[in-house]
Amino acid sequence: MKNERQDMILEIIASKDIETQEDLREELVNHGYHVTQATVSRDIRELGLRKKMGSGRRLVYTAVKDANMTGSDSYKSVLQAGILSMVPAENLIVIKTVSGVAMAVAAALDRLEIDGLLGSIAGDDTIFLAVKNHNYTEKIIKEIKIKSEE
């Protein structure tokens, strides 16, 4: 049953833009798989699904091996498409993003392990990056720009 369900997930995301776990759960229900959000979350993790920019600059689930994207390619894609502006503010960096993309951008930045970047807080279209001290802010902004262009 689990393998069949996970095969169905791969079919669904290959044929439709699925933005959220709830969207995926509803599609599974429509295909006769009555599952909880926790089950969908586990399946996503086990299948190694990632988010990439879909149509309309929306993040949608994709199977990395099917999309021929590595983790760094996926992060680059999210950073390129999502970041609108970055402004230093003492030991913070305020990043404006496309609406609905801030959490994905913040997650990508956290995974890049940039020296001096302590963590992030994301809303819908704004991210606050906590920086070790104000001496790091410009360096981190430059590194984010480089990472998104590599």
UniProtKB/TrEMBL annotation:
Q: Which residues are in the Arginine repressor C-terminal domain?
A: 82-145
Enumerate the subcellular locations listed in this protein's record, separating them with semicolons: Cytoplasm
What is the predominant subcellular site recorded for this chain? cytoplasm
Q: Outline the extent of the Arginine repressor DNA-binding domain.
A: 2-66
The pathway this protein participates in, as annotated, is:
Amino-acid biosynthesis; L-arginine biosynthesis [regulation]
Note whether DNA-binding occurs among the keywords.
Answer: yes
For this record, the Gene Ontology CC terms, alphabetical, are:
cytoplasm
Q: Which GO terms describe its molecular function?
A: arginine binding; DNA binding; DNA-binding transcription factor activity
Q: Transcription regulation: present as a keyword of the record?
A: yes
Name the encoding gene, please.
argR
UniProtKB keywords: Amino-acid biosynthesis, Arginine biosynthesis, Cytoplasm, DNA-binding, Repressor, Transcription, Transcription regulation
Q: A GO biological process this protein is involved in?
A: regulation of arginine biosynthetic process
Would you identify the family this protein belongs to, as annotated?
Belongs to the ArgR family.
Q: What does this protein do?
A: Regulates arginine biosynthesis genes.
Record's protein name: Arginine repressor
